[in-house]
Amino acid sequence: MVTAQNTAPATPSVGAEHRTRLQEGMARAVAAKGYSDTTIADIVREAGVSRRTFYEHFADKAECLTALYESASANALAVLRGAINPQSDWQAQLEQALSAYFGALACNPALLRTLFIEILGLGMPGLAARRRVNQQLVELMLEVVNNRPGEPLRKNPLQPMMAMAVVGGINEMVLQSIEQGRAGQLQELVAPAASLLRAATSMDL
């Protein structure tokens, strides 16, 4: 007998769980086969849900990969923001934040490759998603560098294009580490990334 209980729509928490499982399934499938060879069947098998559930959340695998990229990037950005202590010395604050950020990225090398390489396989939609994340990093950088508590406003604040150049440089460092099989050693990038940002801020003094 069909009851109201088993015909009721899924609660938001169940829906959120399914969405998360699908993103995790996408990450595992892409890590194993690459994005181009990954199918919806692969994703739902890894996620342990039905194909119908997949289409309740995503129109296609590109949308699922984009959601995975944005979710994982948001987590890394939250770690970066959480590591910023406005009361600390600027140099120490910079290195602590970068160390936390690279640590968050390096904790899952397979996912890291998906986020930095496979996302570009989506073409323009993937590039647009990456641009949005880069812009969030730029805005955070401008906020921190140009508004230091206890210090006078900078006469020549860090400019958005210079901040974007720093973000691009850091992304290239990460990509090189992935290509060299050193995705798990991103802490090595803290010093050069900090030097790059210091150089950019010095140019705007």
How would you describe what is shown here?
The chain is mainly α and 205 residues long. The chain has two domains: 11-58, Arc Repressor Mutant, subunit A; 61-203, Tetracycline Repressor, domain 2 (Orthogonal Bundle), CATH 1.10.357. The chain is 71% helix and 0% strand. Mean pLDDT is 85; it is low at 1-10.
How many individual helices? 10
Shape: elongated
Give the name of the CATH architecture of the largest domain: Orthogonal Bundle
Largest sheet: none
Unreliable residue runs: 1-10
User: Strand-and-helix sequence, N→C?
Assistant: HHHHHHHHHH
Radius of gyration, in angstroms, nearest whole number: 20 Å
Report the β-strand fraction as a percent range. Answer: under 5%
Quaternary organization: single chain
CATH fold-level topology of the largest domain: Tetracycline Repressor, domain 2
Total discrete domains: 2
Structure at a glance:
By secondary structure, the protein is an all-alpha fold. The chain is built from 10 helices and no strands.
Question: How are the SSEs ordered, and which strands pair?
Answer:
Layout: H1 4-7, H2 12-33, H3 40-47, H4 51-57, H5 61-82, H6 90-106, H7 109-116, H8 124-146, H9 160-179, H10 190-203
Helix pairs in contact: 2-3, 2-5, 2-7, 5-6, 5-8, 6-10, 7-9, 8-9, 9-10
Keywords:
205 residues; mainly alpha; Arc Repressor Mutant, subunit A; Tetracycline Repressor, domain 2; 71% helix; 0% strand
